Amino acid sequence: MRVNQKLRAKGFGLEIFDGYRPWSVTKTFWDVTPEDKKIFVADPSKGSRHNRGCAIDLSMFSLATGKLVQMPGEYDEMTERSHINYECATPEKKNLRDTLRAAMESEGFAVYEPEWWHYDYKDWKEYPILNVPFSGIKAR
Length: 140
Prior knowledge:
Blueprint: H1 2-8, E1 12-18, H2 23-32, E2 55-62, H3 91-105, E3 109-112, E4 115-121
Antiparallel strand pairs: 1-2, 2-4, 3-4
């Protein structure tokens, strides 16, 4: 991935948490998430960008230590700290978040503003919502 190559030049690697997600998983997430946290999960009636294979949840790790970098909030944290424009983070954490964002945007990905870790690939609307279970996906 070209993003990974760009980040390697800065001393970072990509840590991927989630990519394609079957629609049934999106439905489960929706059903168990409290109403006041629904901004962090996709409405199954509209499908998810993950269901289309056009979204990725990720972060960075330090090539020197092998450890995840510290972002303003934790992955999948359902608080204001997850927002891409959260201003109360330390300058170092904001810089790391911005480094990831710049690398992803340079390759056609757009951040989902409530989640610093979630990026959508351009043209995601052109792909169908899928409910293929993981067991039904064959490696190439």
